[in-house]
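Example record

Each entry pairs one chain with its bound ligand, calcium ion.
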Amino acid sequence: MGREIMNRKYKNLTLVKKDRLYELAYIDPITNLGNYNAYLEKIKEKLKIDDKKTIIILDIDKFKSFNKKYGHNKGNELLKRVGEEIKKSIRKTDIVCRLANDVFGIFLVGKVNVENITERLNKKISRIDIGNIWYNLRISMGVYICDKEEKNVQSMIDKAIIAHDSIKGKYHVQYGVFTEAFEQKMIRESEIENMMEEAINNKEFEVYYQPQISSKTEKIEGAEALVRWEKDENEISPSEFIPIFEKNYFIIKLDEYVYDRVCENIQEMKKEFKEIPKISVNISKESLLEKDFLEKYMKITEQYGISPNEMEIEITERTTVDTNIDMKEILEKVKKEGFSIAIDDFGTGYSSLNMLEMLPIDTLKIDKTFIDKIDKNNNSINLLEIILLISKKLNLKVVAEGVEKNEQVLYLKKVNCDFLQGYYYAKPLTLENLKRYIKENKKNR
Ligand code: C2E
Ligand code: CA
Ligand code: CA
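Structure tokens for the complex follow.
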């Protein structure tokens, strides 16, 4: 363990000095537990003996706020108490160290019941006393269970950290267990992150357009701009990269890029057609919340000599929750410039009727999952009819998304759903193919 290394390294120092040096290098002065170095060394020792082992990384949520609220001394006392409680919850042969601020590393030797130990830790720490005063805390844990021989301690710890990261934002979950699948996801995520800047510079992103058809006239009235990423002849799906870009905020750059392309394409189409369909553009919450969002987008719009009236902004239901107050203000400004506003993926959660009434919305896009439920017998479609009733009451246009089958078209026409979008009519098309589609659509009516 660490002490032996120190002894070997500093053979000639007096015993007292050696102890002091050891303390500095391996002991956390706040909790008297080992520190990160000690954790690594102690685990290395144990790896020689046992083949079954479990690492738990435990972290106190909002410890910063605790420090702010009660002061640093109380914060330090809390860390000490947490260390004590962890020690009480594990066996003598197990290890606990404080790795960084409010992060503790636990190492359990032999067979462990993860559910039991995490529950015990949670119970002990989520309500904890300093002196006689009790505090409520929330902790989160990442667990790596290792059954096979493992030599690289750092990689074991990393896996527990990955497991910890996997539950970020899931407030009802207290711990995550490392899985290979999650590791693969992380690897893929960082691959995508490494490629994204170059992709935008190399113009690997392209915009496709999916027609939206009037259910009354069968005329193409709109088209949704959907981004495509072609990397070395492989297509990477937006449902894979958009969530990653939303997390790392690259979406702000991409949305603006797409918007710029769309404006350019509208300008081009207007030279060829007297009348063009309204183009809707997906804008993520992260983009909308940028301070200079509207200014930037208006500048681009004007640069291509087009008008916001020719476009619709699509925001998801997710965008409208959490930030209701801000969102109302932002959307009202967007609306005032002349854009239409659509709520995307409607029905997949979150949004309230209250929100529908409060926000300046023009269009509801009913999520594909509702359209999928339309079958030959028209069973389980009540919700769809209710949504249609509400939108009529609120004067909203309704677009059905992901329309694939004739029976869906027939039903949606019968219940007066205004617009239909989906593979039944067309997949997302290149600009050239969209133009062709518009021409054909004209001829056929
Ligand atoms: P979304 O806005 O809900 O777009 C509809 C998705 O459904 C598109 O997937 C479209 O290709 C697909 N789709 C359309 N009709 C059918 C159908 O009949 N059957 C089936 N199975 N699928 C259909 P896509 O293009 O993969 O886009 C996925 C999501 O990525 C979009 O969902 C949107 O949320 C996001 N996205 C796409 N482009 C952009 C963009 O430029 N900016 C932002 N922020 N998000 C974008
Ligand atoms: Ca959309
Ligand atoms: Ca959608």
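Residues 59 and 103 are 5 Å apart (CA to CA).
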